Amino acid sequence: SVDELKSFMKKDLPEDFDIRKIFGCFKGFLMT
Fold first, then answer.
1. What pLDDT was estimated at residue 2?
2. What's the chain look like in SS3?
């Protein structure tokens, strides 16, 4: 949901943050 996405974006990014993985999740979010 949108609220879930907002709360996710507010979280501190982990050390192993991978922008490509996040972009893939975001792209999947837009398709649903």
1. 79
2. CHHHHHHHHHCCCCCCCCHHHHHHHHHHHHHC
pLDDT tens figures, 1-32: 778 877 776 776 666 667 788 888 888 888 76
Domain boundaries, the chain: 2-31
From the list 13, 12, 8, the residue with the least C-alpha distance to 25 is 8
Q: Token pair 């837009």 is at which residue? A: 30
What's the burial of 27, exposed, middle or buried (CB within 10 Å: 0-12/13-18/19+)? exposed
